[in-house]
Amino acid sequence: MQKYIALLRGINVSGQKIIKMADLRVLLSDIGLSNVSTYIQTGNIFFESNKDDIYLLENCIKDAIKKRYLFEVPSIVLKKEDVQRAIERQPFYDIDFKCLYLTFLSDTPNSEGMKQITNYQTNGEELILIEKVLYMHSPNGVAKSKLTLNLIEKKLEVKATTRNWRTCGKLLEMLN
């Protein structure tokens, strides 16, 4: 059995797409995932599966949620190595890590899309794309940024979900 983490996009934020973690654990166990556990309320789900097709797992999770809750929730499934590599490749130095965010992408975006989103950087923000992870240093916080997740998804033509640096470290710790 392989260990995975599913990062759900946009649940339990501002009263939208409410899903109780206990219910979600039962739902995902019912579709055949093993040892399902969660971390915080924003959709970080650890599980094991003998399936090795990430896209199949993502679609199974998305479909189960849609069937049960009647709304779509994109998910990005990662292996432990993916999270570890994302942390190890963090490209910034001499920054306040409380202002560092990792946006995990469903696919590698095209370079034209990256050029487009850099036009939305403000207030000292920096973006660096490494494979399927977009690193964003946002010294004034993401709440004031023009680089919203919707914009990133639209311009890069991918599904995406963001976690802060601290959460990424905790997720890797829990995968170990």
Identify the notable features of this structure and list them briefly.
Alpha-Beta Plaits, 2 domains, four-stranded antiparallel sheet, 6 helices, globular
Give an account of the 3D structure.
With 176 residues, the chain is an alpha+beta fold. The mean pLDDT is 93. It is globular. α3 packs across α6 (165-175) and α4 (111-118) packs antiparallel against α5. The longest helix has 16 residues, at 54-69. It has helices at residues 21-30, 54-69, 80-88, 111-118, 149-156, 165-175, and strands at 2-8, 34-39, 44-49, 75-79, 100-105, 126-130, 133-137, 160-164. The protein is 35% helix and 26% strand. A 4-stranded antiparallel sheet has the order 2-3-1-4, sandwiched between helices. A 4-stranded antiparallel sheet has the order 6-7-5-8. β2 (34-39) and β3 form a beta hairpin. It folds into 2 domains: 2-78, SP0830-like domains (Alpha-Beta Plaits, 2-Layer Sandwich), CATH 3.30.70.1280; 82-175, Alpha-Beta Plaits.
Helices, by number, come to 6
How many individual β-strands?
8
Distance between the termini: 14 Å
The domain tally reads: 2
CATH names the topology of the largest domain as Alpha-Beta Plaits
Main-sheet strand order equals 2-3-1-4
Unreliable stretches (pLDDT < 50, length at least 5) are none
Give me the Rg, rounded: 16 Å
Q: Identify the overall geometry.
A: globular
Structural class: alpha+beta
Largest sheet: 4 strands, antiparallel
Output the helix-strand order: EHEEHEHEHEEHEH
Mean pLDDT: 93
- CATH-defined architecture of the largest domain: 2-Layer Sandwich
In the CATH hierarchy, what is the class of the largest domain?
A: Alpha Beta
Give the percentage of residues in beta strands. Answer: 25-35%
Helix percentage? 25-40%
